[in-house]
Write a structure and sequence with these properties.
- With 113 residues, the protein is mostly beta strands.
- It is 0% helix and 51% strand.
- The strands form two sheets. Strands 2, 4, 5, 6, 9, 10 and 11 form a seven-stranded mixed sheet that branches. A four-stranded antiparallel sheet has the order 1-3-8-7, with no helix packed on it.
- It is globular.
């Protein structure tokens, strides 16, 4: 069973860069042919797919976020990381990492001045 754990800041100010990490245990993020994704959920809205990184390191981003998002990985830590630049209060959400049909518990990120 794969366990995913998100980590990152809970509270940020507008214009800062959000950085969230997802550490996987019980399975390697380099295992063929899995993709590891970031999703966020805001109150009253459905989940939004943000982007993904593949088992081989290929990255895929939502067109609406492409200019501000970056996903990378550290295979030595079995970890993948989301960076979102120039955050606004509208980016307040619960952020989830997921992969292989497993989800992390989610982490609340609040953007407020």
């Amino acid at each position: 069973q794969v366990r995913l754990q998100e980590s990152g800041p809970g509270l940020m100010k507008p214009s800062q860069t959000l950085s969230l990490s997802c550490t996987a245990s019980g399975g390697s993020i380099t295992t063929n042919y899995y993709y590891w994704i970031w999703i966020r959920q805001t109150p009253g809205k459905g989940p939004e797919w943000m982007g993904a990184i593949s088992y081989s390191g290929g990255t895929y981003y939502s067109p609406s976020l492409k200019s501000r998002i970056s996903i990378s990985r550290d295979t030595s830590k079995n970890q993948f990381t989301l960076q979102l630049n120039s955050v606004t209060p509208e980016n307040t959400a619960v952020y989830y990492c997921a992969g292989r049909a497993y989800w992390g518990q989610g982490t609340q990120v609040t953007i407020s001045s």
